[in-house]
Design goal:
Layout (H helix, E strand, L loop, with lengths): L9 H6 L4 H10 L5 E3 L1 E4 L10 E6 L5 E5 L2 E5 L4 E4 L10 E6 L5 E5 L4 E5 L2 E4 L9 E7 L5 E6 L3 E4 L12 E4 L8 E6 L5 E5 L4 E5 L4 E4 L11 E6 L5 E5 L4 E5 L4 E5 L10 E6 L5 E5 L4 E5 L2 E5 L10 E6 L5 E5 L4 E4 L4 E4 L10 E6 L5 E5 L2 E5 L10 E4 L1 H4 L5 E6 L5 E5 L4 E5 L4 E4 L1 H4 L11 E4 L4 E5 L4 E5 L4 E5 L10 E6 L5 E5 L3 E6 L2 E5 L9 E4 L5 E5 L2 E5 L4 E5 L10 E6 L5 E5 L2 E5 L5 E4 L10 E8 L5 E5 L2 E5 L12 E9 L2 E2 L6 E3 L6 E8 L8 E7 L13 E4 L5 E10 L10 E7 L7 H72 L9 E6 L7 E8 L2 E9 L3 H20 L6 H16 L13 E10 L4 E7 L3 E5 L2 E5 L6 E2 ...
Helix pairs in contact: 5-6, 6-7
Amino acid sequence: MIYDQYFENKKVIRNMRITFFYMVFFLFTINTFGQTYYFDYYGVKEGLAQSKVYSVVQENQGYLWIGTESGVTKFDGVTFINYTTEEGLAPGGVKSLFKDSKGYIWMGHKTGGISIVRNDIISIHPLSEFIKGDVTGFVEDSDNHIWVTTFGDGLLRINNPDELDAAKLSYDQYKGKQIGDRIVSGTKALNDTLYFITGVGSIIKYNKSNNSFSNFYLEGLTTYFPTTVMLQDKKGDIWFGTFHGGLYRYIQKENKFIIYDSRDGLANNWISAISEDSKGNVWVGTWGGGITKFSDNNFKTFNNLNGLDDQKIYCIQEDTEGNILIGTNEHGLAIFKGEKFIAYGASIGLNDQQIWSIIQDVKGNYWVGSNQGITVFNPDTKNQAKKVINYNQKTDAIGDQIRFLKNDKSGNIWIGTNDNAVNMFDISTGRFVYNAVVNRYFTTIFSSVTALEIDKQNQLWVGTLEGLIYYDITNNTSQFLSQYNGLSGSEISALYADSKGKIWVGVANKGLNYIQDTTIKQVEIEGLLTPKCIIEDTEGNIWIGSNKGIIVYNGKEVIRTITQNDGLLSNLITQLNIDNFGNIYIGTSQGLNKIDTKGRIHTYTERSGFTGIEAKENATFKDKEGNLWFGTVKGVIKYNPGIGEDYQKEPLTHIARLRVNLKDRPMVPDQKFNFRDNSIIFDYNSICISNPDAVKYQIMLEPADKDWRPVTNQTMVNYSSLAPDNYTFRVKAQNSSGIWNTEAVTYSFIISPPFYKTWWFISAIIILGFIGIISYIKVREQNLIKEKRILEEKVVERTAEVVQKSLEIEQKNKDITDSIRYAKRIQTAVLPPEIPFENTFVFYRPKDIVSGDFYWLETVGNKEMIAAVDCTGHGVPGAFLSILGSSMLTKIVREYGILKPSEILDRLDIEIINALHQKDVQGERIVNDGMDLALVCYNRDTQILEYAGAYNPLFHIRNGELEEIKADRFPIGMTSVIQSKKFTNHEVKVEKGDCFYIFSDGYADQFGGDEGIKLRKKNMKDLLVSYYSKPMKDQGTELENYIIKWMGDYEQVDDIVVIGRGF
């Protein structure tokens, strides 16, 4: 838009009229309540070449090109690269920028030149020498011709825009009577029709069929005010901006105009730019009033009253992330990050920027607590006198240092302070009330409230430095709880009432507790010292923020820990909140994070609208509309989760620069470097205009790096002293929405070896070496023949010695085997020679000659004692322990007279530990041996069967249903497993037809079958149920036959003992 050139036209000057009255009316009637939207400004201070931004466009790779008075600037969100004539640009400032269908960037200069960027190369277009006036814009038609609008040389159509050779260039020029010499801008409508606006404000339509132009006019469009800009939106409506005549919107479907001017709330009547974003919103830039955004039939104005510092707008453009890019007259490039964040500060009447608490009352007012008392405001009220009310210690005796604000069920507001204990605001009377029942626990010295919560039962919980106050609001009763009542400590750091009726209590340096009904329980969470804030997610998990990050606890165990290493801005967590969509928000000392329902971590800092940066402890609240409010060191921030999604596409990542030995090199694919060029520096970036500070990177240089390097925010890496090899540098990025590149960006290069490491040099050395080796071999051959003869003689001698040794070893093996077989006779003698009980089977199958499993049968009076024992190991070691165990069982029953199974096991545990000396004098374990066993005792008189077990259970089958009676989960012996053991005694009233089984783990652990897998306990249960109706001896035979068939060719892996007793 060429605004100053309008004044050159005398006709326009004659038709101007002053709209000062409307502008003043607008300024005094607009709602000026001090909410501030965030605009990110980039000017000369940040690296922009000049502060007057005429145009901006985003290329396909994500970079922004910014046209200024001094040239053009390329911007990646962090770094500016300024281009002038020295870098190949045509002379003059860049008034217009355009991206064509091939992604090429066209630049129109003030002095008539055209520059073009193709494949990162800037060239001056040959048409530049024919244009004298400013290039005001570009339009591409359906045939891919580029139309160039100029202010002085009319309109030009480039027919072969790819051609940069002046001799081959084809173009047509239209000017003079045909269309005029001064063309302000051009636009393409939905039907591919081209329209051009002239310097006198008229609209010219291009007729493609006969290559002619005609005046365009719609009934109802002003002819008094010159048209400055024109746009057809996606719905088909046509928007016309005028010079001091406001905005005209033509609705095609209804064939009617709607006119907007400053009296309706339009920012200004001089329209300088119109643009439509991806959501269908129309943005209208003005010259002197800021910007108005139209959403359907609603509109909102942004100006210096709510965040937009510059009122004079040159251009408006949307980037791929949904940000609105605004070229301003004096403030450089302004980037509007959206309406999700709105800041409230001193402009609304806040007495202090340090916000410690916020709440919404039943009337919709917002209460904000600070170090200067309370500010109550309502941004939607029309009563200016009631917009802001302040309360403090001097006027209302409520204290100045407000730390907590909570609503009870009656709508009353409870106030926790750092200097005046607890107060309550009675919403019905509008008065503050001092509650003596609660405040009696405070003293003049200790008057600080450290936490405040009201649960679903309308009960108030107040944290103090000395304990926890419980107050029943309805019944006006209270109780004081401290470490003496079961809390882990007395200094309360956080309180939260969850959906299940639990009150979670954080204690400074003493971890977490919860109170349910009248029970206080301490929660053991490793590493959690001081909980600072607590929230419950949609699945009932408890999120705990501390100075070491976040812990997620499901009521039984920690299921997730989240720290700065995972993407949080800081490990110091001060706020936790949850929106209506289930996303968790984390306030930190460095900004705000969001963890969405997919687990991705989003980042919001000052650059994305969270201008408060440092979040104050527990100063967060969700209002009735679902908006989240955050107290910070710079006022209150309102966040609307319902306004669109964060950018959901992968970041655009680039390797931007290559330096070799500190010198720039072009990034030619598979480039070869000399072995001395082994210091490589890569600069890389990822375009994230929404929040460039939140971008994270991972890099890897193959094969120098074996894996990805840790996540970093660095955009440069230096590899020095690289060895000759083929290398590939990889970089991937994560944007502020927590989305990583699925594919890394790569660059491959080669560092060539020195000549002495080349293949030909090495080959020559090998050949020479081969010749030398052959010569050496020939010389050595004769010596080897002689040495061989001597060696053969020695071999005969040594062979005789080996044979003799082999015979000796064979004899020793026979002696050892005979000893083991004799040991088997001893072990067999220890085992019961016959089964003394009726309806009983014993299936006993050792793995080796001797066994670590054994069975024990004993009759004492009217009681039958049966045990199936599995000793540590098998073979000879197990056999020793089995003999020891059998004798000790007999001793315990016969000598000690102990007949209760659990007591027998308790005594056996002691005997084994003492016998094996499993503790030295310091209590350290020496022998790691023990037993797993199942022991039953059947009383024939009472028909009660008692059972106790160490790891091995009892199977009881009755009427075809198998019940497993669990054993205790600790062994006999092996004191390091558990220091204090007490075995459990189980009793079963025996009925006719019952069957009981005890066993070691050898049967179920045997490998076999078609797939070579373990039999497993479940299949063993199924076997027993299928056999239980048979006589007990037949059951034993069936079990033996089945396991033999199951094993097949597989080796037996463990000793087996199974005992069955039927009734």
